[in-house]
Specification:
58% helix
Length: 62
């Protein structure tokens, strides 16, 4: 039985990638012209919290 397609790639499946994606989402959320400034900031803070969680799991490599 082959299992080489079930093993995760350490780079592509690390928490550093999602942490960076959440940081970019926070930046985009702050610039959204479709929501109120308060709602934009609320979304950005949420994304930053998620980025910090992923960065902590990645061991600070993000």
């Amino acid at each position: 039985m082959r299992s080489d397609d079930t093993q995760l790639d350490l780079i592509r499946h690390s928490d550093a990638g999602p942490a960076e994606a959440f940081r970019k989402a926070a930046d985009a959320a702050r610039r959204s012209p479709f929501e109120t400034p308060d709602r934009c900031e609320e979304r950005a803070r949420y994304y930053e919290e998620q980025a910090e969680k992923h960065a902590a799991r990645a061991g600070g490599q993000a």
